[in-house]
Design a protein that fits this description.
By secondary structure, the protein is α+β, with helices and mostly antiparallel strands. Helix content is 24%, strand content 22%. α2 packs across α4.
Length: 289
């Protein structure tokens, strides 16, 4: 039942978006007469039902982490990782139950995570931007999106507040591309599928229907979609349609963990929660792939 409801997420968005539109029209005092004639309880019920059904996500049965290759090469740091807790991103939306974000360790030239300024840093200022992204397992590309532009980071106080309060919510209801940005989905022989998100515009290197092998390049790291700075977001699902998918745990078999903490992520580097995937790096941990 959960999967059937979740598959219809675009439908449940309709009353939510109509409710938002009515709110704007109400503020402007230009609500059409035929809409004003609808009893308010009917409108409120429809919106509430849409919100409740939109929040229904599938859940996978208990399973061991799927063994995969890392999607990058070299030194990287993890955050929002299943090595810290589950759900790693605080949600099961779009199969993200055990998603992980990774980025290159900072250098002296890397912009601060948060600074006092009027303009945000450009994506080109970050060491992760343009880095190659590789397939974690062999499979066939089932979807790509490459039209989103690389936006500036969200590393000023005003932009970070905007992202946390409004932008993230708007992207969540605006569709998969608005949230994931440029992305690639690869379906594997066992029916699982991996999502590679926030890729650079012009950097997607594959097309739908293409067969890829483990280690084949899929694209480049960018700063598209719901991203505060250039990084790679990856997650594994039990099917290729994110709206109907349950998130799956995975582990990378070809990484060396250093137990070293990236200084810019030291504040979130804590002991893993009891449900964490202990074979994956915890928040802030640097690893070599």
């Amino acid at each position: 039942m959960r999967r059937a409801i979740s598959r219809l997420k675009p439908l449940w968005l309709v009353p939510i978006l109509l409710g938002a539109l009515l709110g704007v029209l109400g503020v402007l005092d230009v609500v059409p007469d035929f809409v004003a004639a609808v009893p308010p309880p009917v409108i409120v019920t429809a919106i509430a039902l849409g919100v409740v059904l939109f929040a229904v996500h599938p859940r996978a049965e208990a399973h061991q982490p799927h063994r995969m290759a890392a999607p990058v090469r070299g030194r990287w740091a993890a955050l929002n990782t299943p090595g810290q807790q589950l759900p790693s991103h605080g949600s099961r939306f779009l199969g993200q139950y055990a998603a992980v974000d990774i980025l290159r360790p900072t250098t002296p030239a890397t912009p601060a995570k948060l600074r006092k300024a009027w303009r945000n840093s450009t994506p080109q200022e970050y060491p992760s931007f343009g880095e190659a992204v590789y397939a974690m397992a062999p499979g066939v590309v089932t979807a790509t999106w490459s039209r989103s532009r690389d936006h500036r980071a969200r590393n000023t106080w005003q932009s970070l507040v905007f992202m946390l309060v409004l932008e993230g919510s708007l992207r969540s209801v605006a569709g998969r591309a608005a949230l994931l940005g440029n992305h690639v989905i690869v379906r594997h022989a066992d029916g699982t599928a991996a999502v590679y998100a926030h890729l650079r515009r012009g950097g997607v290197a594959v097309q739908k229907g293409q067969q890829v092998g483990v280690g084949n390049q899929l694209g480049e790291v960018g700063n598209t979609g719901n991203s505060s700075e250039p990084h790679l977001h990856v997650h594994l699902m039990d099917r290729a349609n994110p709206n109907a998918a349950a998130g799956l745990k995975m582990t990378w078999t070809d990484i060396t963990r250093s137990e070293e903490i990236e200084p810019s992520l030291a504040e979130i580097a804590k002991q893993p929660e009891p449900n964490a995937v202990l074979s994956m790096p915890r928040n802030g941990e640097i690893f070599e792939a």
